Amino acid sequence: MEKELKYNTGIYIIENKINGKKYVGSAINLTKRLNEHKRDLRKNRHSNRHLQNAWDKYGEENFVFKPILYCDNKNLLFFEQRAINTYGFENLYNLSPTAGNNLGVKFTEEAKKKIGEKNKGRRHTEESRKKIGEKSKGRPSGMKGKKHTEETKQKMSEKRRGENHPNYGKHFSNELRKKISESLKGKIPWMKGKTHTEESLKKLSEKLKGRIPWNKGKTGVYAEEFLKKLSEVHKGKTPWNKGKTGIYSEETLKKISEKLKGKKLSEEARQKLSEKFKGRTPWIKGKTHTEEARKKMSKSQTGRKQSEETKKKISEKNRGENHPLYGKHLSDEYKRKISEGNKGKYISDEQKKKISEANKGKHLSDEHKRKISESLRGENHPSYGKHYTEEERQKI
Fold it and tell me: Full-prediction pTM beyond 0.70?
């Protein structure tokens, strides 16, 4: 086999000269295939564990590589099977009694590792990919019409979790991301326009129960550059749930509320949010809540009480220049609206008592008194230019 063969397609054997046991194979290029066998056996990485063990035991000098039949491509498997049947499977190193088929063959972990190492770094050329694509056109998928069992799905899921995932710890380069993006352009997402059935949603929910999100409690998972890109991509886009109501069920809303109870944002997180929203126009600016929405908001707040600590924090936050109305003067129209809105409203005795208790022991500073006095002078006084009737004076 050291010299080039005139006819290079056919059936070959690798024979053990000590016990006569053989390995039968077929190849389009016999020279290349036999050289591959030699290389893998010499490097102790052959995929056939029986042949490798025999090679290690008897040594290279006790094996002969030779073609036994030349034929055209389309008859390779036919003559390979004839050779297997002639020699008898029990007298061969082959892992399967069927030519060109590894069905039923179970590889050891060591063999799998060797195969993996052997194939590392190998890539199909563009020409090769094109040929595979053309060859596979029109062929039905092997799983078409079939479904994996729950047990199989579970095994597949377990196998790819954490460090076992092929992309674990990897970071895609900008070039690769660009290629992926280009390849997906113009393709319609398979779920576009579709919705999950109630049964499907229930299954998804059950499947994810108890799982801890991979990024829970982690910070710095995404690079600043990536976060900036995400922000740029979503700028100007309308949120999918904007202006929609009834998307979440009462049960879901209750769960979300329970989950968020007691959670507090860190000072760092608050500062970041503050910086992020600076200069942005509030989405509710210029809009008014419907009566139904106000009623719901009022109902949701009924019975809720803020702790003394929370009240103190709100008070400290809104003092002096931090107050939203600091340095502002309400227009006459706005004052009139406030007046109209408060008409007929009375503070209950219980509320008066609470206000009185809250103000006990509090003293206004001289500076504060002076400011109040200055703010109520002349035209700024609420009673400026008004004349009370005898009836009004009597009531006062």
Answer: no
